[in-house]
Prior knowledge:
By secondary structure, the protein is an alpha+beta fold. The chain has 13 helices and 19 strands. Helices cover 39% and strands 27% of the residues.
Amino acid sequence: xxxxxxxxxxxxxxxxxxxxxxxxxxxxxxxxxxxxxxxxxxxxxxxxxxxxxxxxxxxxxxxxxxxxxxxxxxxxxxxxxxxxxxxxxxxxxxxxxxxxxxxxxxxxxxxxxxxxxxxxxxxxxxxxxxxxxxxxxxxxxxxxxxxxxxxxxxxxxxxxxxxxxxxxxxxxxxxxxxxxxxxxxxxxxxxxxxxxxxxxxxxxxxxxxxxxxxxxxxxxxxxxxxxxxxxxxxxxxxxxxxxxxxxxxxxxxxxxxxxxxxxxxxxxxxxxxxxxxxxxxxxxxxxxxxxxxxxxxxxxxxxxxxxxxxxxxxxxxxxxxxxxxxxxxxxxxxxxxxxxxxxxxxxxxxxxxxxxxxxxxxxxxxxxxxxxxxxxxxxxxxxxxxxxxxxxxxxxxxxxxxxxxxxxxxxxxxxxxxxxxxxxxxxxxxxxxxxxxxxxxxxxxxxxxxxxxxxxxxxxxxxxxxxxxxxx
Length: 472
Ligand SMILES: Nc1nc2c(ncn2[C@@H]2O[C@H](COP(=O)(O)OP(=O)(O)OP(=O)(O)O)[C@@H](O)[C@H]2O)c(=O)[nH]1
């Protein structure tokens, strides 16, 4: 009996048993539930020697409930639960509800064996003889018991294959893979679809744990190890979730969520870790886009203050000596007043493009607000940072800015200049980001005070901004 065609196989087996035993009917009841006061079963298979003996399609046998009132029936159920077979010759049975019920079905003799699947009472195989009040002890019951075991094996195989099909279906629908690692020997079991996604041939017998872990991004592998270590002693919470980059068959890292649970044996010892691998790349992409957008200035696309904090953290983590170049457009109020705010907006956008042209990909360009910008650079000496600031100044001063005007063939030409202040991030651990910005601001003020369109480096001797506000 193959797992796929198990039902046809059972039908064929019942059709063999019937003629061999000379029974009127061979049947299988599947157990649904043993309730405190009743047993619920369903009539699921039948072979009948003639049409008159057929009962399978009768409504009264659909999910029928047999009350546990009759002591004889109660004992019968208990004994079936314990794996015992029975045979009954109805005319010599003690009177009671069970005998009346069997007589009501015109049964003269009957034999039954319980079917056990994976240690559980799954159902009952029986034969009814409606013509001969005989005993079925001996070869008849032996044959039935052997058939019961064959059916149990077929049901078990079907359940396993059905379960693995459900898992594969779940995998397809939920974009996930199912896995289990046996801790004793590090053996890995993967669902078929996960094995395929990892690039292994379908016939590959086993995936090695080392090769599976090698598919995890090193940082996430360390996080997974830490998570498992943390759970080792935990009595209750044995589940974990981790967002991790996983390299499947291709070369790129794809975000997955690993959901796992540690499984324990009866002695409470961890024996396996099993769980799911869910593709969350679309969710991550959305999150990253939202995060990136929240760190950008909407008008110019430069970083905003939040983006600047993040950029400073990155520079700090890389332990790079950093410089801040603060720059402010000269007389921008006048430009706005002359050409209007819309032109001013276009100029701010073009300014960012022009500045960006002079910067390296890793440098941070921040719009602090209005017409004030900050540039965060790492890995430069003071002279290099000053040279960059000078290059920025010249790139703005060198050529006028062109703005396309809707009612004019010729673009509007606007000459602009910027003033810049440069400050160095000291090794001094007491210098906060705010102090660094304040120093760059003092240098910028000095540049404005020196006549604009110039660069100043902060030194302790640079005049604080507050001193000469009235003379601006
Ligand atoms: N078009 C436009 N203008 C802005 C924006 N944000 C701020 N401004 C203008 O920028 C101008 C800044 O003027 P001020 O702070 O007086 O400085 P300034 O005229 O550049 O003079 P100095 O900095 O001393 O050279 C103001 O007119 C603001 O309205 C914006 O998003 N778009």
